[in-house]
Design goal:
81% helix
Length: 180
Amino acid sequence: EFADLVGAIGDSLGKLADGFEKLVGTGLRTYDAVAARRAESRLYSLRVRLTRLAGVQTILVFDTIPDYLESQDPAVWQRVTRKLASVSKIVAELLKEVSAERSDFVATETYDTITRTLYARQNLIEKLQAMTPPTTEAELNGLHLVQQRYGKMVKNLLRANTALGAYLRSLPKEATTPQP
């Protein structure tokens, strides 16, 4: 169940990356230069948070979960859940930021994808945090599968973040300076 959810979120992040890549080609049209600068500033902020999320999740997937799979030590599982709590906090911040967005970006498929993906990720994190430490062979195999799919999800997140960066670099210089 968890592995399927992680896989679905990973696929959504792939679509998010596709959406940001499409924005590079088509551009995000805004009518007011001031509003455009504010929108780009918020997208820069989104990129910073996505970078932070990718970093924390990379440690979770490639360090903390493998440590637990190797040791099956409940203390290491507590590290996994603490790391999930930090991921959850970043996802909550992203959801708040994305939900407050009011620019033309809201009308894009990319906005819909990022919103759905963040809500699904929050749901996944809550379920993983509520789990007791996996101990049976089936539970450990399931956690290993979750780790593999989570790795794909992180790669798609990095791809989406790279595409967002490319989009921001493609904007006219006068519109891309972040405003306070």
